[in-house]
């Protein structure tokens, strides 16, 4: 793995890049002109130019180890079914970068003895990544990589693991967590109403994020029934924890897309201010 002097040669010192957590919601947000896609596009025009983009998506889950994409070109993964045909023709042409993958792996590899960090040439970009990036970075001219979410790690350990990548923000790497804080697909509704428990947990999470209350964020089910209903499985919640791990003490956050879609999908997102 690369040593520090190699990192300095490949990723140059930079202004501190932002961290984002993006509630990505429906895959249709990739092609629809709506409040979410318009906000992503507007935000993208404000972002500093990175040397690389690394995304932690809820749609790449591994168990017992963490993987990093390592293909020269990223294939687009249509990891959904039953949507309109145009969604399956979306292209998002991006390069990977072996050096950046190795650098990120080097930051993680010594985290825990015998914990596996793997470079993966098969995955690509799933819709948790490209549905958002095609608005945030519509003409990508830097490498894009994904890092998987280890679904077997307790949340405190996941937070500890991703914290090891924090200093790459000072070397031109922009990080994005892509998921949803409230993600209860079986409770979606089309009448415009929002479930009380969805709103309750979204507000609890907002306060905990704002106050850096890791006790609540890393043990969300202590909130009670609202958490159990809002986070029936925590696959979409975990990218938010990964994004929180990348924050420096005292960093300010700005929330955006602060709404709940289809009654049970929180689109709440944040970016370092």
UniProtKB/TrEMBL annotation:
Q: Does the keyword Secreted apply?
A: no
The protein's matches in Gene3D superfamilies, at most eight in alphabetical order, are given as: LigB-like
Q: Which Pfam families match?
A: LigB (PF02900)
Its keywords, alphabetically, are: Dioxygenase, Metal-binding, Oxidoreductase, Zinc
Q: Which cofactor does it need?
A: Zn(2+)
Q: Does the keyword Repeat apply?
A: no
Q: Which residues cross the membrane?
A: none
Q: Where is the Extradiol ring-cleavage dioxygenase class III enzyme subunit B domain?
A: 45-204
Record GO terms (molecular function)? ferrous iron binding; oxidoreductase activity, acting on single donors with incorporation of molecular oxygen, incorporation of two atoms of oxygen; zinc ion binding
In Swiss-Prot or TrEMBL terms, this protein is called Dioxygenase
Q: Which organism is it from?
A: Pseudoclavibacter caeni
Its taxonomic path starts at: Bacteria, Bacillati, Actinomycetota, Actinomycetes, Micrococcales
């Amino acid at each position: 793995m690369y040593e520090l002097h190699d990192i300095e040669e490949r990723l140059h010192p930079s202004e501190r890049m932002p961290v984002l957590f993006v509630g990505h919601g429906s895959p249709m947000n990739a092609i629809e002109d709506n409040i979410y896609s318009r906000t992503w596009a507007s935000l993208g025009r404000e972002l500093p130019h990175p040397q690389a983009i690394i995304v932690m998506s809820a749609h790449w889950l591994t168990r017992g180890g963490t993987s990093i994409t390592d293909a020269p070109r990223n294939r687009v993964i249509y990891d959904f079914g039953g949507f309109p045909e145009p969604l399956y023709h979306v292209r998002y042409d991006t390069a990977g970068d072996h050096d950046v993958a190795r650098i990120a792996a080097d930051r993680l590899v010594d985290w825990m003895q015998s914990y596996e960090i793997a470079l993966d040439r098969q995955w690509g970009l799933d819709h948790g990544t490209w549905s958002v990036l095609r608005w945030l970075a519509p003409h990508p001219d830097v490498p894009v990589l994904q890092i998987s979410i280890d679904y077997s790690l307790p949340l405190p350990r996941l937070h500890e693991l991703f914290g090891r990548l924090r200093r790459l923000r000072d070397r031109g790497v922009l990080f994005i967590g892509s998921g949803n804080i409230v993600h209860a697909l079986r409770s979606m509704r089309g009448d415009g109403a929002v479930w009380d428990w969805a709103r309750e947990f979204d507000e609890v999470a907002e306060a905990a994020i704002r106050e850096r209350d890791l006790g609540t964020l890393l043990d969300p089910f202590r909130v009670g029934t609202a958490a159990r209903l809002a986070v029936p499985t925590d696959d979409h919640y975990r990218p938010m924890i990964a994004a929180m791990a990348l924050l420096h003490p005292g960093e300010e956050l700005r929330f955006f897309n602060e709404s709940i879609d289809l009654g049970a999908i929180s689109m709440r997102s944040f970016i370092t201010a």
